[in-house]
């Protein structure tokens, strides 16, 4: 089942094209890694897909009414600012707002969703801590938990593992992979190509505002594309535990 469909989506900012004719379809059960160098258009694509930027073309998600959109897609932006000194549990409960009528108190189902999200991100011991007093990595995990508590068919996450230590980077990607395996669609932008190669079912490579490759990791991360788009050479090995992919040299 298709969860997100983009057709010739284009965005210009201050008269400069930053996203050019992006056509993309994401189905349930996919963990799609959105990769590309800085300025390639990854964040713009996700924001335009959500209807947060004016764009030409069509996004199936942006066409939805705001409340239905919030019940369809959870959005995790790069910015991780937590503005209010609320508890971790209260912050994660904000993910349930699209499912509650105005003024309605959280129901048992909402508390259960929050409990599941806290458990997934190993945050239960911190549930009563003030979120603004946590470390940067802990705050990142709290914001991921808030998106998980939203329990939407689609999750869009912009560099969610940036700033996490290696264990939590792997654990977060495993969480996303588990969500995809259970029928969700997950689109995540990444700069960590080894983790993208290892955990994503599909990679979409962008460069200068365009989608330049879309397919299985092995088919996308070719030596030619790595040299042209990322200007790197990498080692790639298949092991019993899965693919190992490591950039090792800059190509000038």
TrEMBL record:
UniProt keyword annotation of Transport present: yes
All copies of domain ABC transporter, residue ranges: 4-233
PROSITE patterns: ABC_TRANSPORTER_1, ABC_TRANSPORTER_2
GO molecular function annotations of the record: ATP binding; ATP hydrolysis activity
Origin: domain of life: Bacteria
Pfam family, one: ABC_tran
Keywords: ATP-binding, Nucleotide-binding, Translocase, Transport
Gene3D superfamilies: P-loop containing nucleotide triphosphate hydrolases (3.40.50.300)
Protein name (Swiss-Prot/TrEMBL): Iron complex transport system ATP-binding protein
Function, in words: Part of the ABC transporter complex HmuTUV involved in hemin import. Responsible for energy coupling to the transport system.
InterPro entries noted in UniProt: AAA+_ATPase (IPR003593), ABC_transporter-like_ATP-bd (IPR003439), ABC_transporter-like_CS (IPR017871), P-loop_NTPase (IPR027417)
